[in-house]
Amino acid sequence: MSSFKPLVFSGVQPTGNLHLGNYLGAIRRFVQLQDSHDCIYCVVDMHAITTWQEPAELIRATREVTAAFLAAGIDPRKHIVFNQSRVVQHAELAWIFNCVARMGWLNRMTQFKEKAGKDRENASVGLFAYPTLMAADILVYRATHVPVGDDQKQHLELTRDIAQKFNNDFSARIAELGAGVEMKVGEETVNGFFPLTEPLIEGPAPRVMSLRDGLKKMSKSDPSDLSRINLTDDAETISKKIRKAKTDPDGLPSEADGLKGRPEAENLVVLYAALAETSKENVLAEFGGKQFSAFKPALADLAVEKLAPIAGEMRRISADHAYVDSVLRDGGERAGMQAEATMKTVREIVGLLGN
Ligand code: AMP
Ligand code: TRP
Q1: Structure pTM?
Q2: What pLDDT digit, counting tens, does each position of 168-193 carry?
Q3: From residue 164, how far is each of 72, 170, 182, 193, 261 by CA, in Å?
Q4: Which of 155, 174, 175, 213 is found 20 to 30 A from 223 (Cα to Cα)?
Q5: How many structural domains comprise the chain?
Q6: With a 6 A CB cut-off, is 152 part of the ligand 1 pocket?
Q7: 207 pocket-lining for ligand 1 (C-beta < 6 Å)
Q8: Residue 94 belongs to a domain with what CATH number?
């Protein structure tokens, strides 16, 4: 039990198409957590520019992700919705964390290796430092819980390592200023300024796979649009993509065990279960023994039923620039006050004259 006030933070990059993986792995969880927690949801435009973005497209995508949050049901009055670059304290804390984190830690990050590819020398410095900015996003609010998909696990472990090293490096100063908070780490009670944030990687679909290759995750950057269901796809496109989804020649098993070694079949069953908010077992009890030619139309109907209202709302909201921008401005102001309160103490802890 940490004695930090429970606070949820998460971020989504405004790059390309939001897809069903983003929705089931992250955004739907964001909506559910609003009832039990204070939440801050951020469109991370500064993370987006770690790889090249056309400026006009970045602006469009920032509004679109914001619209997706609102269309999915996030309430920007009860909680906070904003874009990262408005709150400059994220960048300020990220710099301090660049000086806390070690090269060796960042060298181990698999997302950097994947995104940089073979030509590492030519990757931006920002892409390498991406995880320290992510740690700053979370810790500038001293957030305790972060809902994300499975691919972000390593970044959240790094966030904890940074918090822990900061708490240790500055422990004397934190004690002198009385800025520490007691928290339980395993059996021990320790004192620190930053919480050791818990990842919330849960729900039925923490890792939605590509419709073309059951071993690759569904991704915004996959060159094949058939690999993913975009939140903006219309009913006909959704049906076509599911019809064309790769499967194996066998029918559906009646037990979950029968999905072992069949990643494409498993993915479609997981999608059905997640969309219907039921278990894989229940889906197989209904469809076990049937062919994919029977299952796919049922999955397509379900996907359309769940996604069409969100897509419609998203289109309506993203066309209203004045409204979307006012949500971001208001959210940015409220987030900025919280972030500045943290940074005032951080500057004192580190010894940066600035308050
Ligand atoms: P990104 O699009 O990389 O900014 O991701 C936004 C959120 O969606 C993060 O919490 C990711 O972990 C989550 N996410 C991205 N792709 C998937 C996927 N294929 N399955 C489940 N969650 C995902
Ligand atoms: N790295 C996350 C992703 O690609 C996005 C992100 C940035 C984030 N900052 C965050 C997620 C803070 C959770 C918390 O999906």
Answers
A1: 0.96
A2: 999 999 999 999 999 988 888 889 99
A3: 35, 10, 13, 9, 39
A4: 155
A5: 2
A6: yes
A7: yes
A8: 3.40.50.620
